[in-house]
Amino acid sequence: MSLILLRNLLWYRRPVASSCKTDTAASTSGAPTTGNVIIPPLAVLKNAGETCVLTSGVDLEAQTATDGSSPTSTEPPRCSSRAPSSSSSKVTIFLRQKSIAIKNFRPTARMVSDAIIGLSDGMTVPFALTAGLSSFGDTRIVQLGGIAELVAGMISMGVGGALGAKAESDGYKAKLADTVKQVVQSSAEAVALVHDVLRPFGFDLPQRDTIAHNLMQSSDRMVDFLMRFHYQEKRPDPSRPMACGFTIGIGYAVGGLIPLIPYFCVERNQVLVALYISIGIMAVTLFIFGFFKTVLLAEADRDRSTWKAFLGGFEMLAVGGGAAAVAVGIVHGINMSMTD
User: Fold this and answer.
1) Contact predicate 265/274, CB 8 Å
2) Is the pTM value of this prediction over 0.85?
3) Residue 294: pLDDT above 50?
4) pLDDT value at position 332?
């Protein structure tokens, strides 16, 4: 076996003529070369639409093990060409790009804020409604009313979030159009705004004039400067309305489904059992949600204290529990008055 491997190694060292097309880009890729042949590190050479696989010592060894004879071929390593599938390569590249995008995905602060809004409303309003409907003593009523409210609330919250984000985008476009008009028609006013922006930072008059003069050389540059530093407007993401509505709607649905689950797990006349289970689950859920919401929305390290996080949990618990208690009292009072 050692003689076989040594012989194959000597073949790689010999200058031979290759039947494969070589590429100048391949010669600069860091692969070792011998004569006119490029010896690839993995014995695979890819050139302009074809793949050339060099015969290795493993093939010769396999031949020896098959027929019992030693390899006597003195031919140089052979290349076999096969055209790769363009469709499969495109699919592979697409999947690789999507995998990298998913791996590098990080939720933005706006997405976290939208999710918190949806979860907060979803865990408060449906919980109060289901607790109030429990006064009728029938889980079927709670199920139907809870599902109806959950679907309607999810759609309403999602559409409201999308419309709100679209209004922000429309406001930015209107301000951008006004700024462009201001720069084109009243350059002196635009220069004055540049001075107003730079003055608090200690720039003297000659420096401010120089900066304003350089900005006025390009109207696009001046508009961008005023939008970012004077009006403090950030260009909105075109997909923001859709993402906002989807995040808030899904958050509302997830939050509202939690207090409704126990009513599907008991008998129809065991509404009080489901209510007690729902109260216990929501008490823990509201506290945990308020705790981590305080941690995520803290703007400084000093705000990330354990006391503030626990306080946020108790505040969320008090809001949700208070809303549920009020709903139960009102529905129970109306029910009693109607039965009398």
Assistant:
1) yes
2) no
3) yes
4) 72
